[in-house]
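Thread: "does anyone have the structure for this chain?"

Original post by V.I.:
We have the sequence but no experimental structure in hand. Need at least a predicted one for the grant figures.
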Amino acid sequence: MSRGRILTHVYGWLLLLPAAILLLTFTHYPTLATLWRSFYTPATAFRPAAFVGLENYRFMLEDEVFWQVVENNILFAVGTIPASIALALLMAVWVNGRLPARALVRMAYFTPTVLPMIAVANIWLFFYTPEIGLVDQLLGALGLPTRNWLGDPDTVLWAIVVMTVWKEAGFFMIFYLAALQSIPPELEEAARLEGAGRWHYFRRVVFPLLMPTTLFVLVNAVINSFKLVDQLFILTKGGPDNASALILYYIYETAFSFFDESYAATLTVVLLAVLALLSIGQFVILDRRIHYR
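Reply from O.Q.:
Generated one for you, tokens below.
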């Protein structure tokens, strides 16, 4: 190999070195350390950590609260992912057309995205407050019965789902809007010449071309459904009776309220494995249906 090529390779690796150091320090090392920690008991001031193998994983399988938060998270994901993606696509198609004050409508749709989740949670806490909240005020004006939305185990999780969809849909809309604007207008003109209606054009032309964006949005929506817990600290703290607790909130509670770092590490390892499998599955399954241009 010539000296010039060697210098080029060295120069390339030097450019990659800062990013590689950050990746190893803040991603790979914490992941491996968490996996290693899950095989030990919690360390205390009077007793060092002891190796217990898979004991923490066995305890996790017998933990009723763990299975409850898993069920909650699955319902939360099922409620937020399809709704936020469908609403984002609908809003993108709407604001991409010719309508009055289009820029103002886009800004209104995107505004919830730029708000911190803590601020959003406080806004919706006012909406859901029994008797004096906006939701109950509207129901009372219509002569419908009111209820404690965040205090009822049957409604608390779905109340949080509605709030999450409201915040996330605008973020996903931006990606769909960018993808829609990249579609050549000649395709629509050709479809009209062929006599295709709007729905047929959208279903046969637009939506297939949006599949790369849909894959990106879907992966982000899945990850968000397992990591968005800020709202729980303001709205419910996982209650009532763990009816709104999600996996990441349970990990936080285990580590910083119960001070069981080893069990929290075990839960984190399982969460990382599930997210990795879901992401790989989405890429493997959907990549065959994606049309790249």
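V.I.: this helps a lot. The mean pLDDT is 89.
O.Q.: and Residues 79 and 161 are 6 Å apart (CA to CA).
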